[in-house]
Amino acid sequence: MKPVEPEGPQGSGAAATPGAEVPAAPGARGRHERPGDPGEPRTPLKVALLGCGVVGSQVVRLMHEQADDLAARIGAPLELAGVAVRRLARKRDGDVDPTLLTTDAETLVARDDIDIVVEVIGGIEPARSLMLAAMSGGKSIVTANKALLAEDGATLHGAAGRHGVDLYYEASVAGAIPLLRPLRESMAGDHVRRVLGIVNGTTNYILDKMDSTGASFSDALDEAQSLGYAEADPTADVEGFDAAAKAAILAELAFHSRVTAADVHREGITEITATDVASAKAMGYVIKLLAICARSDDGRSVGVRVHPAMIPRSHPLAGVREAYNAVFVEARSAGQLMFYGKGAGGAPTASAVLGDLVAVARNRLAGTHGPQASTYADLPVHPMGETVTRYHVSLDVADKPGVLATVADMFAKHDVSIQTVRQEGHGDDAQLVLVTHRASDAALSATIDGLRELDIVRGVTSVMRVEGDDTP
């Protein structure tokens, strides 16, 4: 198998959680034993890089520019021993030594002199096979591959545990923002209740422009693409796939339970209209694509979801502009914590990769490794229908007596309580806008199905969840 170039900014981070250490990986000591004289030069730790696109080229740049500082922090130099790419002749950003380039990734990761493999290819294959092969040979891994971690993280974690090596992936979620390591290590003694945040910069940029300028979704997307915030094919971002993968990783770390991308309820932003955004603004809300990971009230299950939602303009997440990311973590003892910063881009993501590389290299020299991922709680992911939140519903209705009472009866039939209601327009253009109290998603869905069957309801024009009223 041969690697492909990275498709775009990815992420990585440390895959460690509390757990007993196991014997060091083969080759973790040996030629890197600490010398008797602290000033004696150390044998370099050799790094293989898989992928040299947006992120990989920045990793190379930072390794060169910060070589002396990295060596001082680690206790030994880092040496880039090879870079696997798909096309040797492709023009690349930065100064990459062409003698290091190879299209034979399998041979590169199998080399006996390689200590650490950094994977920034992205996608499922060949990344998975290459990382598994590297770990079987005693190499530690730093990866930026959120899609693979969300789909098959169990296989990667299992291999790391069996072979006594590190698997770190801080940059897989939220780019340069230090988020996964605090969840995995700093909060290991706490009880996380909820993780709520904006984890996709492309969709945040689009929604921010729709809110600030009144632009349509298509116009805001065009602008995002022209500025390089959105790919030519933006499906992974605007349909929520990228955010869903990140939500799975966050939930697994926060709740010590196995969560995959398939467990995440996912909705994108392609159906959000300028009218929806204007309606939210009139009510003092802003629309954001949120990743929400939360324990159930009884603590026996977790819900993991990605979807657009209205949040109050007083909420800190409402002020997250353009392509930035921000994540709230709510814990029993620590209370509310907020992590904010650049969530994508070559340099920010490479910064997170380098942080993991330093941590893994230190472990390598010490002949140990970080704690492995913990899924001891084994909490099930409950279905979306059991999720409880508030809703904003817009209906096109006939403007005649009894309409509101009939609509209210349908909500009451399914035990969904109405908090506020207002009517806009008259005659054929009449619209009812309702905001509910907290109700289950299943109850709201049943209500919407019932409303669509009423003769007086010409159409359900918008249904959106309302979040964040309980977070200052």
Automatic annotation (TrEMBL):
Pfam families: ACT, Homoserine_dh, NAD_binding_3. Pathway: Amino-acid biosynthesis; L-methionine biosynthesis via de novo pathway; L-homoserine from L-aspartate: step 3/3; Amino-acid biosynthesis; L-threonine biosynthesis; L-threonine from L-aspartate: step 3/5. It catalyses: L-homoserine + NADP(+) = L-aspartate 4-semialdehyde + NADPH + H(+); L-homoserine + NAD(+) = L-aspartate 4-semialdehyde + NADH + H(+). Residues 392-465 form the ACT domain. The keyword Lipoprotein does not apply. It is an enzyme of class 1 (oxidoreductase). It comes from the Bacteria. Keywords: Amino-acid biosynthesis, Methionine biosynthesis, NADP, Oxidoreductase, Sodium, Threonine biosynthesis. PROSITE patterns: ACT, HOMOSER_DHGENASE. Residues 1-44 are annotated as: Disordered. Its cofactor is a metal cation. One of its GO terms (molecular function) is homoserine dehydrogenase activity. The keyword Amino-acid biosynthesis applies. Its EC number is 1.1.1.3. Residues 13-28 have a biased composition (Low complexity). Catalyzes the conversion of L-aspartate-beta-semialdehyde (L-Asa) to L-homoserine (L-Hse), the third step in the biosynthesis of threonine and methionine from aspartate. Belongs to the homoserine dehydrogenase family. This is Homoserine dehydrogenase. It comes from Sphaerisporangium rhizosphaerae.
